[in-house]
Amino acid sequence: MNLNEESLQKIAELSRLKIDPKDIQNFLTDFNKVLNYVDTITELNVSSVSDEELYPNEGNSLRADKAEEGLSRSQIESFAPSFQNGYFVVPKVIET
């Protein structure tokens, strides 16, 4: 599959990206390399490979879901330079 300039412009438009006209050829080259690589991968014959080899069962990599003791309110308050009425006080960053 090869991407043409018109398709690249459409992808850029949908992605809300602006591609400088002088960079279009570089983008086309790079995109086409990626697409050709994907085509190569999809052509691989994996029919002789078992599901266990394709999707090894490594078990659950997440930690056990159990309740643990958390930080006390005083410990949390000690992390902040300013804490008031149960909230962290931070400088105003957005003008209204």
Automatic annotation (TrEMBL):
Catalytic activity, EC: 6.3.5.-
Top class in the EC scheme: ligase
Gene Ontology MF annotations: asparaginyl-tRNA synthase (glutamine-hydrolyzing) activity; ATP binding; glutaminyl-tRNA synthase (glutamine-hydrolyzing) activity; transferase activity
Pfam families, sorted: GatC
Keywords assigned: ATP-binding, Ligase, Nucleotide-binding, Protein biosynthesis, Transferase
GO biological process, one term: regulation of translational fidelity
Recorded catalytic activity of this chain's protein: L-glutamyl-tRNA(Gln) + L-glutamine + ATP + H2O = L-glutaminyl-tRNA(Gln) + L-glutamate + ADP + phosphate + H(+); L-aspartyl-tRNA(Asn) + L-glutamine + ATP + H2O = L-asparaginyl-tRNA(Asn) + L-glutamate + ADP + phosphate + 2 H(+)
Keyword ATP-binding: yes
Similarity comment: family membership: Belongs to the GatC family.
Known role: Allows the formation of correctly charged Asn-tRNA(Asn) or Gln-tRNA(Gln) through the transamidation of misacylated Asp-tRNA(Asn) or Glu-tRNA(Gln) in organisms which lack either or both of asparaginyl-tRNA or glutaminyl-tRNA synthetases. The reaction takes place in the presence of glutamine and ATP through an activated phospho-Asp-tRNA(Asn) or phospho-Glu-tRNA(Gln).
Subunit: Heterotrimer of A, B and C subunits.
PANTHER family: GLUTAMYL-TRNA(GLN) AMIDOTRANSFERASE SUBUNIT C, MITOCHONDRIAL
Protein name as it appears in the record: Aspartyl/glutamyl-tRNA(Asn/Gln) amidotransferase subunit C
Originating species: Leptospira dzoumogneensis
